[in-house]
Amino acid sequence: xxxxxxxxxxxxxxxxxxxxxxxxxxxxxxxxxxxxxxxxxxxxxxxxxxxxxxxxxxxxxxxxxxxxxxxxxxxxxxxxxxxxxxxxxxxxxxxxxxxxxxxxxxxxxxxxxxxxxxxxxxxxxxxxxxxxxxxxxxxxxxxxxxxxxxxxxxxxxxxxxxxxxxxxxxxxxxxxxxxxxxxxxxxxxxxxxxxxxxxxxxxxxxxxxxxxxxxxxxxxxxxxxxxxxxxxxxxxxxxxxxxxxxxxxxxxxxxxxxxxxxxxxxxxxxxxxxxxxxxxxxxxxxxxxxxxxxxxxxxxxxxxxxxxxxxxxxxxxxxxxxxxxxxxxxxxxxxxxx
Length: 338
Ligand SMILES: NC(=O)c1ccc[n+]([C@@H]2O[C@H](COP(=O)([O-])OP(=O)(O)OC[C@H]3O[C@@H](n4cnc5c(N)ncnc54)[C@H](OP(=O)(O)O)[C@@H]3O)[C@@H](O)[C@H]2O)c1
Fold this sequence. Notes:
There is one protein chain. Strands 3-4-5-8-9-10-11 form a 7-stranded parallel sheet, covered by helices on one side. A two-stranded antiparallel ribbon has the order 1-2. A two-stranded antiparallel sheet has the order 6-7. It has 13 helices and 11 strands. The protein is globular, with a radius of gyration of 19 Å. Helices cover 38% and strands 13% of the residues. By secondary structure, it is α/β, with parallel strands linked by helices. 49% of the residues are buried. Helix 1 packs parallel to helix 11 (293-301), helix 3 packs across helix 4 and helix 9 (252-261) packs across helix 10 (265-280). The protein has helices at residues 37-49, 65-76, 105-119, 138-150, 164-171, 194-201, 223-226, 241-249, 252-261, 265-280, 293-301, 309-315, 318-321; strands spanning 8-10, 17-19, 23-24, 54-56, 82-87, 89-90, 100-101, 124-129, 154-160, 178-182, 204-208. It has one domain (8-215, 276-304): Alpha-Beta Barrel (TIM Barrel). NADP nicotinamide-adenine-dinucleotide phosphate binds next to helix 11.
């Protein structure tokens, strides 16, 4: 895929049309080991050439560094890109395993001003609540987010890792364009309640970590031994110890399907997520993360792959067999509260 661009999809009933695959930019500043700014910038430019228009960041990624890093790219292409960022989460630099979550109105107002400043734009296209602060009713937080829309600081609203009930309560306050939650061949918990609710409400699904944080590409098999000491994946139960070895064995059916198509494992993982749009009848816009131009090409090319019914059946049992949770503390994920 060098000359053609990817298909498009709508970010829910109320959102804009975007490339049917977005780009996760988190790893360019945070979580996944050493980064190369020049290579990351080349990745952003290549993504845009391929028709990728939805770019995903958050104020928490590198404590604002990711938003600052992306700002020149966004400014150079302001009319071509859809900027998605998030508030709610902060990670104390002296304790990277800790998470502070806030959803109260004064915090949201302070967070949006800080993101607008770092991004150096007049408005954020898609503003997500990153995590739920269970001490604040969701209607109160979404009420403040709706005020930001009316004030022109934000164009569309999104929620990340919410339950179906939380999504319904939020939608009663203001239209929600997208729910961003983990969804991949390894993480399918949202299919039970969140996905049907999103379909009913006209909300798009934006699957994060669609490559299982890289595990589904086969690029690492055990976080303890294959990744640097500060890599976030070393905190995730499914990528470490005995779980990692058990989970690596689950890649075999993906390998079988990849060989049949003559493509990579990661491309099959992405094709599977993308095909959930047809299976569940709603817009699905995955945001695989990469910092490498060659990989963004490979990932974008997955939008042309169609899996057969037999291939989907072969891949079906994988998620139920995964050993270990996707987070060490599941209270902050929708599955921990459904
Ligand atoms: N809402 C939330 O709570 C939340 C949580 C996590 C992530 N996110 C968002 O979702 C985005 C994507 O998720 P993610 O980055 O966690 O996981 P992912 O997209 O499943 O996987 C990213 C990992 O896969 C590697 N990779 C990408 N393409 C590859 C390819 N073609 N071949 C081999 N390896 C490849 C990347 O390495 P390289 O970068 O070195 O290529 C990176 O280590 C993030 O960037 C972030 O914006 C949101």
